[in-house]
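Journal club prep, shared notes

We agreed each person brings one worked example of a sequence with its structure written out as tokens. Mine is Glutathione S-transferase. I'm keeping it raw so we can talk through how to read the token line rather than staring at a rendered picture. Sequence first:
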Amino acid sequence: MQRVAATTLRAATTLEAATTLRAATTLRAATTLRAATTLRTSRRGQSSTAAAPLRYFSAWFCPFAHRATLALEHHRQAVPYEWEESLGWEQRAPTGDEDFEATERSDWWYHWKSPALLAANPKGMVPTLLDPATNRAVTESIVCIQFIDELAAANGSTAPPLLPTDPFERAAARVAAEQVNKSVTSGYYQALVRTDAAERADGFAKVLDGLRAFTRESRGHFWGGDSLGLVDCVLLPYAYRLYALEHYRGFAVPASGEGGVWERYQAWLSRATSLPYVAPTLPERERYLRHVAKYAEGKARSKVGNAVRRGAAAHDYDDTLDDDAAHAQGVK
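Then the structure, token by token:
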């Protein structure tokens, strides 16, 4: 093996990443403004004082974080928050101790993580929600959605709940959300990241299976009825981004067929992305394609990317085995 020379390689971010870190996005500005609003009177008739906004560590490009964003925007009048852009991309100088070919390393990209994010969540994952009054943090995207919904109810939210009130229906929604995570989410990264054509095709087949199941189980305009819910919030960030698989892999979701399944799915996608509080959260298409090219070209050294490259499912990434530092030292 040719050893990587220990010469200095300057860490450089793309113009896109620099822009993200230097300037507040429209969504961030809007949510900061909303965070200053006084909470409405609770449903129990008790007065609620304006609470300190949650610190929301996020990243514009991350579909996992996008799930929490949808929940926060759904309950924006009851759960104030301030967006903190916390992830970027950087190239890192080699140490000289790596055990791989120099050509394998020259254009790898690693996640830059803000010090504030790492202080709140040492794993450095988004979404992370932090209560500034107590320094208690909530992590994991599906857990964050449920936490936001519970907090909104306690604060007297007038928006429809994201989870059903019936315990059995709540349990069914949690199961369906996890199935979406295992099929669509993991299938998306398998189709995008794996290099074998058959493995990519198998990943996209998992995506389609997940979309079929979601559509057939839906009981109204959305999965659980007439308003956005937990399962919709888990699926939507990936459903919206599936254009990336068509762009980089040639995989397209059908527009019609299978007894109307795909017509109903496409109608749901159009309906969900058109919601007034959802549309501003959607990343610009060309910008996202530039970001996700790092995954399609095998250059992104993130925990999810590392897990999928070694053959694991995206939802089964390992915090130690798939950590950035481990892969900087040649773990494959």
